[in-house]
Amino acid sequence: MTLEQLLTFFDKQPYVGILVYTDKIIYVNKTIQEILGFSKKEILNMAPYEIFPQEEIRNKIKQILQKRLKGEEFPATYETLEVVSKNKKRLLVKLFTQTIQIDNQYGGLAFGIEITDEIKKEFLIEILKEINRTVINKEKEEEIFESIIKAIYKKGNYEFVCASIKENNSDKIIPKYCIGKYNKELLNSFSEIFNKNNSSDKCLIMQNTLNNKLTVFNDLNKSSLLNNKLLTSLLNNSFKSALFFPIYKNNKIYAIIGICSKYVEDFDKISVSIFEEAKHDIEFALKKSENITYLKLLQEALDKAYSWVVITDENAQILYANKSVEEITGYKLTELLSKNPKVFKSGYHSDEFYKKFWEKLLNNEIVETIIVNKDKKGELFYLKDKIVPIKAPNGKKYYISLAVDITHEKTLQNKLKKDILTNLPNRNEFINLILKKASPDESFACIIIDIKDFKIFNQLNGNNAGDYILRKFAEFLKTIFYEEDLIARIGGDEFAVFIKYDSINDLHSIINKIIYKAKNYEEFHNKLSINIGISLYPKDSENITELIEKSYLALEIAKQKGDFSYEFFNQKINQKIIEYTDIKNLLLHSIKHNEFIYHFQPYVNSNTFEIEGAETLLRIKQKNKIIYPNSFIDFAENTGYIKEIEKIMFPKFIKFLLEINIPLSFNISGKSLIDEEHIKNLFHNIEDLPMIIELTEREIAGNIEYTKEIFNFFKSKNFKLSIDDFGTGYSSLTYLKDLPSDFLKIDITFIKNIEKSDKDLAIVETIINFAHRFGLTTIAEGVENKNQVKILQSLNCDYLQGYYFYKPMPFEKLKNLINSNKSS
Ligand code: C2E
Ligand code: CA
Ligand code: CA
Known about the structure:
With about 800 residues, this protein is α+β, with helices and mostly antiparallel strands. About 45% of the residues lie in helices and about 25% in strands. It is built from 30 helices and 29 strands. The strands form five sheets. An eight-stranded mixed barrel has the order 21-22-24-25-26-27-28-29, surrounded by four helices. Strands 2-1-5-4-3 form a five-stranded antiparallel β-sheet. Helix 5 (about 115-135) runs antiparallel to helix 6 and helix 6 runs antiparallel to helix 10 (about 270-305). It is rod-shaped. The N and C termini lie far apart (about 170 Å). The structure holds ligand C2E and calcium ion (2 copies).
């Protein structure tokens, strides 16, 4: 191949530019002419370094050229070299050169490939990367702008980059972050054009900006769309192409970023799409910055808020607590983080309380409640708390507790509520004091003392007398216990004591002491009695409300057991409560369905065995089943249901009484007897009937003064009176003389033992003699055999009652019996 032929071959090479030079360029192929935009003629007159615009590179190339011209042989490779085309377009080339000899002259052969697009893409991607880093790392707006402007300037090799930002106070868009070579005049013209108010005069940049679009000027020399001043100053700064893009914040123009290059067509399609991407990234960074600012403001607000704010994760681990929480609880935030809010648990609330609370939260319901917590020192604090379950954008669940500390109000309220009457702590304070005092390593008893039938006492004696008793009783309790024992009035007639004890025996003697002293307490005047329910801390519960509840359950049982009874809480109590509910349901059912009936048991003259009268005895009849009073009467009396029963049955009793010509006894409950209104209603318009009213000795013994009054009331109606179950109560025989009574019934237990026990025989004898001295007729009950009859006859007992003679029987049977006796 000749040189001629070779060069023709080179000429046809696409992509690869080929250039041969000595001190001047002596050959270029077509590709180079096309890339640089110079004609062959124009290039062949140039020195090889003249196509490089950068001073540095030019100098380097000059040195290499010197060497080559001297004949030094070496290759040189240039990865990216900037060259400028005739029309001032920046181009990037990869170049390979080698020394050659042509016509005895040394020179160089260069192969070059244009890589402008590839490299530019790399630059631009570098810019994007840097912007992304900024978005991630920077929070402050100024840092974001500074760092982005720098990235575009450096990575993009532009001559001038400037961000103009909306000013806070003036709303004007003013150049703020600028790098590169520029004069003041340029910044002024920016300011001017970005803040033009006259809409008709808005240049392309602003029109695009308003439409949230980029503006590209690829050759400022040919641009006619820019207003003159800006164009002039851009050209004065020797910029040939430029790109402007707006940054929006909250849907409003916030900034304009301008990028200028001294080369034409420096912003091609790729650049535009990359800067569009950058625009979104910057907007995102600003949004994020703003969000972070808001978050910081919010956190600041939360931190400084008076209200309590705690945020936990799904597992109730504390993620955040504000300053207020630290102040209220005394814990440092570091001590609380990742702990469960259980650290504040005071023991005030029952497990049931927390159970309900969590049920709601798990059901995504808001919980609003007043919660009593304990701080680091062990002091209680009250929160009016609102707990909000929240599903966060990350899909996880959180709980936010927003609360106000109402301890001050509560304690104030408690102080106001502190029992004025007795000056004892009230229920709330009692609980608070226990919470402070109790520690599970020691044994305490929670004792509730209930004054029995205090309501009725109040009705009978008036509120003043009632208040007086309550005050006195408070003083009375203070005399029994030590100062360190907690005494409180926790209900109308309920007092509570929380005491430390050493052994169960000691505790029993304490309880017995209370009972003994209460029985002999003069202010009670035999009118009132008490019941006591006891539960033990920590054995029965460490939770104070639960503990008190258990004392109350025990108290319920004690009440059923009768006057001056006490009961300790035990697991069987629940069973007993169930039994009582069963009895209660039985009574309610029987009252509703009229299932009560009477049976009658005659009693006889001990000498003639003639029937002198009959006792009326209550039963429940359900279908063919008869239920006897031993399974329900105590409960009915202790709960007051007996009054309901009497209201139904007393008129029936009167009807029977009128139908038969023997006296009938009626058992009246002591509980209904002390309800004056009830008795008056029951006996309204009823008098002068052969009726005997039986009242047990126990009821009398409890209340001798009142019994006297009521006995006189019955006497005035011409009824007879009988003291039942004599010998079981606490009455001394002496006060019998004060009662206008007619009969005395010797309790069944003495009759049972009369044959075997000389002591019981003696008691019965004494009772009969004593009764006769006061003109009382004696009745022995529960006579079951002939021997007992004989003994009782010998002791001069007047009447006898028992299965030996007659068992209780229905009314018809009694009537037949009386009629047949008469006719015989
Ligand atoms: P109470 O007033 O002492 O009545 C006598 C009880 O002794 C009756 O039992 C009677 O059936 C039983 N009894 C009679 N003779 C004998 C005998 O020879 N041997 C034995 N083991 N028992 C005998 P009941 O009817 O079950 O009544 C029990 C208690 O229920 C009564 O004791 C009374 O306190 C109360 N009660 C009965 N009816 C009424 C009523 O209408 N009102 C009130 N408040 N209480 C009533
Ligand atoms: Ca009786
Ligand atoms: Ca009896």
